[in-house]
Amino acid sequence: MTNLTKLPSWADNDNIFAVVETPRGNSCKLEFDPKLGAFALAKPLMAGLTYPYDWGFIPSTKAEDGDPLDVLILHDAQTYPGVVLRCRPIGILEVEQKKKGKSERNDRIFAVPDRSPLETDLKDIRNLPSHARDDLEQFFRATNALENKELKFLGWHGPNRATKTIKRLAR
User: Fold this and answer.
1) What's the pTM?
2) 121 falls in which pLDDT band (50, 70, 90)?
3) What is the rounded CA–CA span in Å between residue 82 and residue 116?
4) Which SUPFAM superfamilies does the entry link to (predicted)?
């Protein structure tokens, strides 16, 4: 299998590539293991918790936690692990996580597929209703609860900040 972490970050000047690891609706987190060239179980989620959208990473990036930059892909479809989507970044939730006394940034990029007609009007994550952003924050807290990670949300920002972050973390 192709090492999906080595694909280019950018499809063109406006769109990134996003690799789906965990499809919408899954109750366990999957991660691509480049050494195995396969997807492996990272962790089960708490009972009743599922991914609200496709979750994955932006290839050829490296975040502070050592992993590729995380991306949540907002669209109505459910895909499969390994699917590569051309997406337009629409924002970022800047996050500081603390585990075993060590703090590090672990930001989440938000994107919409360029071929998803239902989301073409969504240009900025901050345009989501506040309760939808609150729900996403609660989801992120819940997915980290079993790992004793403490999350501090530093703020929601639009597509310009997301693009700058992706470019800064691209390898």
Assistant:
1) 0.95
2) confident
3) 18
4) Inorganic pyrophosphatase
> Rounded CA gap, 78 and 50, in Å?
12
Give the position of tokens 């299998």.
Answer: 1
- Please name the amino acid found at residue 90: I
**Cβ atoms of residues 119 and 110 within 8 Å:** no
Contact 165, 105 (CB under 8 A): no
Tell me if residue 146 falls in helix, strand or coil.
Answer: coil
In single-letter form, the type of residue at position 35 comes to K
Higher pLDDT, 100 or 57: 57
Residue carrying the six token digits 């900025």: 124
CA-based nearest residue to 169, from 63, 70, 15: 63
CA 125 from centroid of its chain's CA atoms = 13
Q: Report yes or no: 151 and 144 within 8 Å, Cβ to Cβ.
A: yes
Q: Whole-angstrom Cα distance, residue 119 to residue 84?
A: 18
- Provide the domain limits for residue 45: 4-169
